[in-house]
Amino acid sequence: MAPVQWNCNGFYARKPFLQLLLRSNSPACLCLQETNFKNDHCSKLKGYSAAFKNRLHQNIASGGVAVFTKSEFFIRELPLNSPLEVIAVRIRLASEVTICNLYLPPNRNFDLTELDSIVNQLPKPLLLVGDFNCHSPLLGSRTHDGRGKTIET
Predict the structure, then answer these.
(1) Per-residue confidence (pLDDT) for residue 153, from 0 to 100
(2) What is the residue extent of each domain of the chain?
(3) Is 4-152 in CATH node 3.30.420.40?
């Protein structure tokens, strides 16, 4: 069961679509970017457990990532040392797998060492999903940019 990932650009604005997605596809795992939650207010989805990393030091709700997993699966959030908007969980399906969800805002500079650091902190097997705000033919885009080349590497 592959996870579903989506930059929802606002959980509450897209909640009806999320509920339809969950009813029609019933994914074991749902990875969202730009949830726009505040630290004191994160939402739930019926039948799913959740792990969140919200953007800190904002006057308004913006950014952030979340991983929702079906409640029947064992989930354990993994600690990460990173300045990026990233969260990782270990989930037991048929076997254990790490799912890492990352959001790279378009105005946030990053380099390959930051991504390598995240990957090196996580147990394998590992699936890295997210919104990298990049362009690369390898990722399905018709254009190429510097970020896309970094992600390819």
Answers:
(1) 83
(2) 4-152
(3) no
